[in-house]
Design goal:
alpha+beta, eleven-stranded mixed beta sheet
Length: 301
């Protein structure tokens, strides 16, 4: 496996993909780039990054780097790297939910065609619970799922209750890391423990595979509340400390200052559901925090 497969998935979705000396990059928003694979820690030079932004006309970019690096906001990756992932490792409530899920659902791989079709309602229920129902569309979801169909390393799994999808996830394995990209569930089945049992059974399966040493379950979000990762931590995933660095185009960087940040925060208070404003505020917050030394930063909870 290599990053070209993941890049092919992104290109099938009509995302712009670029490569520099240190990494691959995808246009995550208008002229905003994210390094991938998402779990990698890179240490590119400022010259490389500035040249990339100048060549693409980019506004800014974001990547994860070592905690020992000299720039970047203190952050984390959500990972599970236990060689043996067992039910006994989980706290009491999580064990109870997994057992309940085992009684109510079957866990199995499913075709991406089924995920594209039946999985949308689960996805919509999930973003609706998060207050983001306008952030995604059914057409976007179907393209995302069908773009992974037939690509090595991609897989779709589901918790199935009475022949219906109750929870599902999409994952991609590259090298020694399996990344969970999306997980969603039907609101009506949440009380059955379907999210817990799906994550538990899939993780056990993935870690049992030859060569897989860890599961990556996302970056510390730019704008989501800390509670968004609590489910993962209850399932014994951990927060691995890293630094997330945001870099802006050198000609624009002087304008991304405290005054601009205060203005963005004010606009966000007036439009609390505006996803573009929320991401922009998060980028600027990470950028300003990342310029401070580690001992001057507030660490995530």
């Amino acid at each position: 496996m290599n990053s070209e497969i993941f890049a092919k998935w992104l290109r099938r979705q009509e995302h712009k993909v670029f490569q520099t000396e240190s990494s691959n990059w995808v246009e995550a928003g208008p002229r905003i780039y994210q390094a991938f694979p998402y779990h990698q820690l890179i240490t590119p030079s400022d010259e490389e990054l500035n040249q990339f932004l100048r060549q693409t006309g980019g506004i800014g970019l974001r990547y994860s780097t070592l905690l020992e690096s000299n720039a970047g906001a203190v952050s984390y990756h959500v990972i599970l790297d236990e060689p043996e992932y067992t039910l006994e490792m989980l706290p009491k409530k999580a064990r109870y939910d997994v057992r309940k899920g085992l009684q109510n659902a079957s866990i199995e791989p499913i075709p991406f065609t089924r995920m594209a079709d039946e999985g949308w309602q689960l996805r919509y229920d999930t973003i609706q619970r998060q207050g983001r129902e306008k952030a995604e569309s059914q057409a976007w979801w179907q393209k995302l799922c069908l773009s992974a169909d037939g690509l090595p390393g991609f897989e779709a799994w589901a918790a199935i209750v009475e022949n219906q999808l109750a929870a599902s996830l999409i994952a991609f394995t590259e090298g020694d890391t399996c990344s969970i990209l999306y997980q969603q569930s039907a609101t009506e089945h949440l009380s059955l423990g379907v999210n817990n049992v799906l994550l538990f059974e899939f993780s056990r399966n993935a870690l049992s595979r030859l060569g897989v040493k860890k599961i990556f379950y996302g970056l510390h979000s730019l704008d989501a509340p800390a509670s968004v990762d609590q489910f993962k931590f209850r399932m014994r995933f951990v927060a691995k400390p890293v630094r997330q660095r945001v870099v802006f185009h050198p000609a624009l960087a002087p304008f991304f200052n405290g005054v601009t940040h205060a203005l963005l925060r004010a606009l966000l208070r007036l439009q609390p559901g505006n996803q573009a404003l929320s991401k922009a505020e998060g980028m600027l917050r990470f950028y300003r925090r990342g310029q401070l030394p580690l001992d001057k930063q507030d660490w995530p909870p």
